[in-house]
Amino acid sequence: MIFSMTGYGKAVAMYQDRKICVEIRSLNGKSMDLSTRIAPQFKSHEMEIRSLLTSRLERGKVDFTLWVEQNATLDTPAINVAVMQGYMEQIRSISQQSGIAMPENLFEILLRMPEVIARKEVYEVSDEEWAVTLDAVNKALDELVDFRAQEGMALYRKFMSNIENITSLLATVEPYEKERIEKIRQRITESLEKLSIVDYDKNRFEQELIYYIEKLDVNEEKQRLTNHLRYFVETMDTGSGQGKKLGFIAQEMGREINTLGSKSNHAEMQNIVVKMKDELEQIKEQVLNVM
Questions:
Q1: Three-class SS of residue 251?
Q2: Rounded to whole angstroms, what are the CA distances from 191 to 194, 205, 275?
Q3: CA 112, 116, 121 angle in degrees (round to 5)?
Q4: Residue 269: which of 279, 259, 280 has the closest Cα?
Q5: 66, 39 in Cβ contact below 8 A?
Q6: Is the pLDDT confidence value at 72 over 60?
Q7: How far, in Å, CA of 22 to CA of 55, rounded?
Q8: First to last CA, the chain
Q9: Helix axis angle, 243-264 to 219-238, nearest 10°
Q10: Are 120 and 77 in contact (CB under 8 A)?
């Protein structure tokens, strides 16, 4: 079974008055490209989180977010009343000594002064809270992996349809192939017969004609393409982590189809090759998303 690199997972856990939220998104990528946004209190666990994500997701462009939502009342920054009163006394003293009127927006000015709004301290995460958080991370990962599996199954069905279409198209080449060879022989013979003043060795002509027709023979290309098609399906059935290998097989399929087209020398065969190329391009486009 193949897996897509596209996925999404989210999990929420509660610990005391805090809601711990985990969100993971992944898209296709050549390797593991991990970006994390983690709440400050969990920064000490970042390497553990990265290791877990890398081991389970393997490949893709992954965005991981971990944030904490607290009770609004508890999370509201505190006003340092003592500091604010100190500033107010200094402003009043300066006003009396210098004769400058007190500002009308005194309260607004005081709130902007340094240290009036107390900074919230980043609390230390306990082992119990980390266990709850780690469980949420794993649940989000499970959801994302399930998402990848579902997308992978859709890709599998699409690839099988493309492979079956190419196989069917390849089977339609044979009648035109035989017709093509006979037409080539007839065309060359008729051209020589028009040249009545030219005398040629018919035995040598037959040898050269056979050599020319052999160069246009596509049996090897057909056999190799058939093998590649079968190998592609076998590789999909071996398990996950086959995206790069499937890409290489698709490239080899393209080489055989291109050679088939260059050797065809027949309008109907070339039309069939164009249809096979269209199916193959769909495979190449989607195989980039296979893990």
A1: helix
A2: 5, 13, 33
A3: 120
A4: 259
A5: yes
A6: no
A7: 18
A8: 11
A9: 160
A10: yes
For the chain, give every domain's residue range: 7-74+125-148, 79-112, 149-287
Residue 85 binned pLDDT confidence (cut-offs 50, 70, 90): confident
* CA R_g for the chain: 36
Please state, in angstroms and rounded to a whole number, the distance separating the CA atoms of residues 25 and 140: 10
What is the pLDDT at residue 198?
63
**Phi, psi dihedrals of residue 30, rounded to the nearest 5°:** -70, -30
In this structure, how many other beta carbons lie within 10 angstroms of the beta carbon of residue 20?
A: 23
Burial of 283 (0-12, 13-18, 19+ CB in 10 A): buried
- Encode pLDDT of 14-54 as tens digits: 998 889 999 999 999 888 999 999 998 899 999 999 999 99
What does the block give as tokens for 92? Answer: 């009043």
Nearest to 170 by CA among 229, 251, 234: 229
DSSP for residue 67: E
In the beta sheet, which residues pair with residue 14? 19
CA dist 155 and 134 (Å) reads 31
- What amino acid is encoded at 28 in this protein? N
What are the start-end ranges of the H helices in the chain?
Answer: 46-57, 72-75, 81-98, 106-112, 127-171, 173-194, 202-215, 219-238, 243-264, 267-287
Contact between residue 24 and residue 148 where contact means Cβ atoms under 8 Å apart: no
Question: What is 7-74+125-148's CATH topology?
Answer: Ribosomal Protein S5; domain 2 (3.30.230)
Query: How far, in Å, CA of 20 to CA of 69, rounded?
Result: 6
Q: Count Cβ atoms below 10 Å from residue 1 Cβ, excluding itself.
A: 12
Structure token digits, residue 76: 């509201």
